[in-house]
Amino acid sequence: MSLTATILLIYAACLVGTIASPARSNADRPPEEPGARRLLGTLLVPALALLAGSQTLPARAAEMAPQAVSGPATVIDGSTLEIGGRRLRLYGIDAPDLDQTCSDGHERDYSCGRGAAEALAARIGGESVTCAPRGADPDGTARALCRRDGDDLAAWMVTNGYAIADRSASAAYEAQDRRAWGRRVGLWSGVFEIPAERRRMRRLSAAL
């Protein structure tokens, strides 16, 4: 039983006791005794406030909870989408930035960042995407689990080597990451910098 329900039951018992007790005449009542009804009224005020608060809080929590978004998606990069003007990063993965260059199995440079973005755009096609929020990055950009026709876009990107599992955020895609590495597909077919590490080094260089 909740605390609110327990308090209300106690006050209800007090009310019943007050109503059931025989009324006393003014002559029988001590001059300085506070009225039972006044005391009961004083006690009921916080109880009713508590009850109202307990009913309001769940409704407010539901209003404040991040809502899922769906609709046509614009691909920003291999791990970022924009839906209805809202920017979302795919939860649990990281992809090369648009300007990032990698080396393939023949040591030839190629634009792995643009390749990842193009692969994600092709996977989505013209279909609607549904994204469920999963927190946010330090820069405020929301993280989300995004699906196209029920398929997890992040899982697809990692499985095909266009992105890697972001182990700092989640262990959800480690299995796909290992399979992509074992098959030497996408990024794993050659040499590449870990995107997060590359960004960190660029920030350090800019600060010098």
TrEMBL record:
Q: Which residues cross the membrane?
A: none
Against Pfam families, the record matches this protein to: SNase
Where in the numbering of this chain does the TNase-like domain appear?
A: 75-190
Q: Which SMART domains match?
A: SNc (SM00318)
InterPro entries membership = SNase_OB-fold_sf (IPR035437), Staphylococal_nuclease_OB-fold (IPR016071)
Going by the entry's taxonomy, the superkingdom of the source organism is recorded as Bacteria
Query: What is the name of the protein in this document?
Result: Thermonuclease family protein
Please report the organism this UniProt entry assigns to the protein: Methylorubrum rhodesianum
